[in-house]
Amino acid sequence: MAAKNFGCRVVNRSKSSVVFMILFALLMFSMLADSIVSKISLESAAFNQKRDYQALQSLKVVRNIKRDVVFPLPLTVSTQNKIIKVDNEHGIGKFRRRRLPGYEIFMSDELTKKFHGRVLEFFNHGCEVHFFMTWIAKVGSFGRREIMAVESVFKAHPNGCLMILSRTMDSVQGYRILKPLLDRGFKVLAVAPDLPFLVKNTPAEAWLDDMKSGKKDPGEIPLAQNLSNLLRLAVLYKYGGVYLDTDFIVLRSFKGLKNTIGAQSIDVVSKNWTRLNNAVLVFDMNHPLVLKFIEEFALTFDGNKWGHNGPYMVSRVVRGVEGRAGYNFTILPPTAFYPVDWMKIGSLFKLPKDSAGWRWIEAKVWQLKRQTYGVHLWNKQSSKLMVEEGSVMGRLMAENCVLCKHVYSS
């Protein structure tokens, strides 16, 4: 019995030793595994830290390079949320661009697809002169001043034709505004323009694609202003004729003008022009100078500088091509279209205070009738001015209207 009990104790001790050895082996393996994992983690962290440090240094190097150096980066444009993602080797960043106004003029639809046919049909009625204006604002903003400009066109050209490029005016409300003129037999029509069609196969086609896709920044200047700058060029190149701003009062016939642009200012000593303006343009179809204007507009577009794509643009182009063969055009002096500087336009709206002022008005009206095709009103400066009865502007409006209603309202 004692021997049997001893045997049991020996067996139990043997089992305990085996269990102890297994537990010890598991403990050692666990410690070894922890050591290996810790080492790998430390090496990985060191590698990541080194890589992040190198990336940071790389970014610092980029930032230290001159600011005017541009690096080409692949762009992914989202037109829905107006976010541009910049994909580069350091990850994906985001920056907001100025929101592109939702102008319907960028689109072609069933209405605009009729544009070319409507133009050909409209001007196929014995028009003495083909006139164009643009209107990208709301139809309700086409007010008394704009109607006066339209009236003056027909006062000097009873057999002329005027097309207003405007989606908003090409409507029931726009028709009602123009109906009094239509009732008197004048040929005036508002037509929604097809901008993609007008710029097709011109340097502005790529510009329009970039603008619609978000690759081109529209800038801080109201885009309507620059769209008007482009529209007038595109329609003159496509069809030829006369372009007029809607703040222009016509005083006499344009019938004798051909391929003409007006100077806004001249040097008082040399009498050479110092700045041109695009408020009035008279050009034949497919004229090379107009194509050059379109090219300059597209290649040097800057939506953050007032006048850069308009008056300053035509001045840059003419200065570069003036005197070169193949460009036949005439530059008229400021008295033709811009007889009064924009800073002094207010003087034409006011009554004189004494007899000398009345004599000045008489002399000014006489001078304008003899030397001027029309007067640009510089609407940005004069839109809020009242036309005082008896003033130079009051006289001009009263003598060059056809409806002659509310002549003295602004």
TrEMBL record:
Classification via Gene3D superfamilies: 3.90.550.20
Record-linked InterPro entries: A1-4-GlycosylTfrase_dom, GlycoTrfase_DXD_sugar-bd_CS, Nucleotide-diphossugar_trans, Put_A1-4-GlycosylTfrase_plant
Pfam families, alphabetized: Gb3_synth, Gly_transf_sug
Residue ranges of domain Alpha 1,4-glycosyltransferase in the record: 283-405
Designated name of the protein: Alpha 1,4-glycosyltransferase domain-containing protein
Organismal lineage: Eukaryota, Viridiplantae, Streptophyta, Embryophyta, Tracheophyta
